[in-house]
Structures are given as structure tokens and as C-alpha cells.
Design goal:
The complex is a heterodimer of chains A (188) and B (154). Chain A has 188 residues and is mainly alpha-helical. Chain A folds into two domains: 1-90, RNA polymerase sigma factor, region 2, helix turn helix motif (Rna Polymerase Sigma Factor, Chain: A), CATH 1.10.1740.10; 93-188, Winged helix-like DNA-binding domain superfamily/Winged helix DNA-binding domain (Arc Repressor Mutant, subunit A, Orthogonal Bundle), CATH 1.10.10.10. Chain A has nine helices and no strands. Chain B has two domains: 37-100; 102-154. Chain B has helices at residues 4-22, 32-47, 50-100, 105-116, 120-126, 130-143, 147-152. The longest helix of chain B has 51 residues, at 50-100. The termini of chain B are far apart. Classes of the chains: A mainly alpha (188), B mainly alpha (154). Chains A and B meet through α2, α3, α5, α6 and α9 of A and α1 and α2 of B.
Chain lengths: 188, 154
């Protein structure tokens, strides 16, 4: 695959759109999963992916074959998603009461529950929507995307200590939020 | 010590995070993004077509002209400032020199010499001897006219 990817990149550098289309088709799902989890909105996530791939086309010459293409792509996608988060800034606190019952009922003790994009977006927004930017990204990349700390450092340009610290604070805030949900449910 | 609330929180958090990991967001239409991306790229390429280049180069020339004019304006302003400075400095020097001139018979002679167009240098050249120079001044003082002095000059 790596050989085919490098071949495709060489062709893209020559202006081959077909080769680029192949790369977009191959990586779009991974890119969408990341932007969706950052943005919590399907349409915005698709736009971010589109914007990200256009940036990749425009700056493909700056990609160094020694590095992982997926890390480079994730970095661009994450940046596009972050820019959109900053622009839309509609991540207002969601009233816990509106979701708590459903969250507990649906997920407590059942991690295998199926979720559609809409439901996922709601849960992501409840959990990570109000977190500071870096904490939100580190939490999503480490805990939801299950990326290695080293890869998160590369994608976000943060030090290991920063990643650890942001992850700690993010987990703490999310736990407090879940705590409030459980408390609310008990009071019902 | 952990209580039931903490256990429930941990269970719920664990379940939600696991569910989010297992359920990856899926693209409903796998052709939509590649098509849009390729369309955007083609659109960008069209903008870089000869017509686009002509248009953008025209804009570039206009920008260059604008920058050139701005630079010229700045240069002219600097030149104007420098000239003003020199003129003011010269005027100040002249004013100081004029103020320093004493009003006595000798200087009346000097003024007459200036008015007549005979420079001090010419006078000194023509009367290199100090005594002769003093005599010329005396002559001028007594005759009250520069015309007669002019006659003395070769």
C-alpha cells in the first residue's frame, strides 16, 4: 500500500487528478470520522474534509515521504475542523436534562449499542462540546480515535506533557459532566 | 472510598466512550466528497487558465503601479522636507549674519559695496595691501559714492 501511495503522490505532483481522486476515496472515511468527532456535525464535517483535501492537493509538495501520510492528512483535517469550530462557535452548553435520561438508559452497561451519525454528534457535543479547544482535540484523538500519544503530538504540535495534561483535564471535565447526569437521573 | 454514584459515573462514561469508539461515523455517499474535491480542483485550474493569468497579471501590474506611485510620493515628500530644512537653515544663518552687522560708518560702506555689486573678495583682490584697502574705504566714506571707487578698479 505504501508503495502504491508513494506512486500516487508522485503522479499527483505531476498534476494527475485521477491519482488524487484515488487517495481521496481511500482516506475520506478516516478523515470524515476525525472531523465529525471534532465538529459533532455531519455537514460541517463533510465540508471540512473537502476543504482539507483541497489543501492537500495545493500543498502536496510539502509532504515528506519519510513521514506517515495519514498523520500529515490528519493534521490538515484537524486544522480545518478547528477553524470551523472557531467560526461556528455554536457549542453552547446543552441542557443536561434534555439528554441525561436517554444517555443513561441507552448506554449504562451496554457499550455495544449502535449509534447513528446524529446520535453520535449529540453525544460528542454533550461530552466534549464545551471543553477548551486543545482538551477537546486531545480527548477525541486519544480516547475516541484511539491514537498513540506520539501521533497526537505530531498532529496537534504539542509536547508529550501538554498532551498528558490536556487529556487529564478533559477526562476530569467529562467525568464531572457524566457525574451530573447520573445525579440528575437519580433525583428523578 | 468509591460510592455507588462514582461507580455509575465510571460505568456510564466507559460505556459511552466505548460506544463512540465502536461506532465510527460513516459517510453515506462515498462519491460525494471525491466529486466535489475534483470539481473544486478543476475550477481552480480553470482560474489559472491563460485568461485567468491575463486577468491576474493585469491586477499584478496595477498593484506594481500603485506601489511605485506610493514610493514616488514618499520620495517627493522626503525631498521636499530636505529642501525646506536646507532653506530654513540658510535663512537662519543669513538672519544671524545680518543681525551681527554693526551699524557704523564702516558698515555703511560695506552696505554700499554690497548694493553696488562689488564683492569684498574683488575689493581685497584689487587692494591686496591693507593700507590701500583702508584708503579705498576712506575714499568711499568721504565721497559717499561707489561710482568713484568703481573707477579706481582696473
Amino acid at each position: 500500500m505504501q508503495e502504491a501511495l508513494q506512486e500516487n503522490i508522485r503522479n499527483i505532483l505531476k498534476g494527475d487528478q485521477e491519482a488524487f481522486s484515488t487517495i481521496v476515496k481511500y482516506y475520506q472515511q478516516q478523515a470524515f470520522a476525525l472531523t465529525f468527532r471534532i465538529l459533532g456535525d455531519e455537514e460541517e464535517a463533510k465540508d471540512a474534509v473537502q476543504e482539507g483535501f483541497i489543501k492537500i492537493w495545493q500543498h502536496i509538495e510539502s509532504y515528506k515521504p519519510a513521514n506517515k501520510f495519514s498523520s500529515w492528512m490528519y493534521r490538515i483535517m484537524a486544522n480545518c475542523a478547528i477553524d470551523r469550530v472557531r467560526k461556528i462557535r455554536r457549542r453552547n452548553e446543552v441542557a443536561m436534562e434534555a439528554f441525561s435520561e436517554k444517555i443513561s438508559k441507552n448506554y449504562l452497561g451496554d457499550p455495544d449499542v449502535a449509534m447513528d451519525n446524529k446520535e453520535m454528534a449529540r453525544i460528542i457535543r454533550i461530552l466534549a462540546g464545551n471543553l477548551p479547544e486543545k482538551q477537546q482535540l486531545v480527548f477525541i484523538l486519544r480516547d475516541i480515535q484511539c491514537m498513540e500519544s506520539a501521533e497526537v503530538q505530531v498532529i496537534l504540535g504539542l509536547s508529550e506533557t501538554n498532551v498528558k495534561s490536556n487529556l487529564h483535564h478533559a477526562r476530569k471535565s467529562i467525568r464531572e459532566k457524566i457525574d451530573r447526569i447520573v445525579l440528575f437521573e437519580r433525583s428523578q | 472510598m468509591k460510592n455507588r454514584q462514582d461507580d455509575d459515573t465510571d460505568d456510564l462514561l466507559g460505556s459511552i466512550v466505548t460506544a463512540l469508539r465502536k461506532n465510527e461515523p460513516r459517510l453515506k455517499d462515498s462519491e460525494e466528497i471525491p466529486d466535489k474535491v475534483i470539481q473544486s480542483i478543476q475550477h481552480m485550474r480553470q482560474q489559472k487558465s491563460p485568461d485567468g493569468i491575463t486577468r491576474s497579471s493585469r491586477i499584478r501590474y496595477l498593484t506594481y503601479a500603485q506601489r511605485l506611485l506610493t514610493a514616488a510620493s514618499v520620495c517627493l515628500l522626503i525631498l521636499y522636507g530636505a529642501e525646506e530644512f536646507i532653506v530654513v537653515k540658510k535663512l537662519n544663518t543669513l538672519e544671524q549674519q545680518t543681525a551681527a552687522v554693526r551699524i557704523d560708518p564702516t558698515n555703511t560702506i560695506f552696505r554700499r559695496l554690497v548694493k553696488s555689486g562689488i564683492t569684498v573678495t574683488t575689493l581685497k583682490q584689487r587692494f591686496p595691501n591693507r593700507l590701500k584697502l583702508l584708503a579705498a574705504q576712506e575714499h568711499l566714506f568721504q565721497n559717499q559714492t561707489v561710482e568713484s571707487l568703481k573707477n579706481l578698479l582696473p
